[in-house]
Amino acid sequence: MAGAEEALRQRNVSSNGNSLQVSRVVVPTEEGKRRDRELDEHVEYEFGGPWGVVAIMTGFPILMYYLWICLVFYDGQLVCPSSLDDIGTFLWRMWEHIRVDASPNAYAWKVYTGLIIYQLVLAWIMPGYMQEGLPVPSLGYRTLMYKCNAVGCVYTTMITAAVLHYTGIFRMTEIIDNFGHLMTVAMIYGFGVSFFMYFITVATGNQIRMSGNFIYDVFMGACLNPRIGPVDLKMWLEVRIPWVIVFFMSVSGACKQYEQYGYVTPNMAFMVLATWLYLNACAKGEECIPQTWDMFHEKWGFLVIFWNFAGVPFSYIYSVVYMATHDPSKYRFSTPTYVALYATLLTAYYIWDTSMSQKSRFKMQTQGITTYRKTFPQLPWGTLKNPSYIQTAHGNRLLTDGWWRYSRKPNYVADWVMSLTWGLVQGTCSPIPYFYSVFFIVVLIHRCSRDFERCAIKYGKDWEKYCSIVKWKFIPYVY
Fold it and tell me: Which of 62, 156, 203, 343 lies at a C-alpha separation of 20 to 30 Å from 181?
């Protein structure tokens, strides 16, 4: 980033990893500071304002319960009242499924809370790579240091789970068997942490970009950089809880199939591979996360907290739930179909992984960071040498090379294709596993509109120039 650097540098961290303080101050141009002040003010409501976020906060948990009930108890088919007279009975049946099979029982509290505590402890004590984040305008353009140890934590968790499974202390099949109970506990954590963080942030005077409407500010968040010791909670929750659960839910489904049939279907193996690829990518590329908009601008509210505690792990893997509760004969494919499915996943993954790497490492290069971690796998074309870019009046640079010369969001396109394969893996047995890809494309389109609006404010005419060079928002020559 162009601009003056103050002589504040604290790049050395103590051996116990607890000195996670500011690294340095990187000040943009005066034009850049003016535009950043605009972005750090609450100007208008998003998501339909207070009434919209109330609808989301109440409607989405209900939808999660409904889809799970249809998936498990109604052969994966969407059900509805048969008549007006049946509405009361229908709602009672739905409630009984929740009361009996999704109650927040002691077992679910023990398992979910145990995972949270274990992941927090690992994040705190495991050694990690220290990564500098982007300058944060609200902190006077100070850059924060992030302890990236997800790789060690994730594989320690895998080893721990394997030991617990083979010793019989905790069988992996219990996860999928208790899906409903765990989902309810996850929802409670999502709501509880969201409200707690709002109140504690306001009480300590650390709130930022507030609207003045209570429920809207709980939804969007009040705090920007929540930390416990060396653990950045926003980055921790983005990887350690949702994708760990998603992966182990797939492993649980595979274990259940093996116990029932003596083998694991190619479909379930696909989901184990797909979820491992995603989890491993988040862990091995964790040093790229501090370079994202999520870290230096998005606040930590219900929108992010609930989604990571409950939304991702319990609505993205409906295909696993379906396959674990239905006979494999219902979703058996031909060999060419399996080859096409696996090839599509791996191709999309390659584009997603390398596009994310290209963008993040380009941002690191602008900060003078040229040494990168060599975590597995390092894919070809993940780092661009002497890439083309637009130097903005703000002081930032806009990448126009690599995958980013063809699309403004190539990572979103590849990410969505992967989500689609997670539904295709069970064919046409049930429409519910396609919820992930349908919901995801809506989220991505909405997020793109938010990102592009902010970029237009932040970069002005430079953004117009960028759009004239990189013409396509998503798919080149299509949209």
Answer: 156
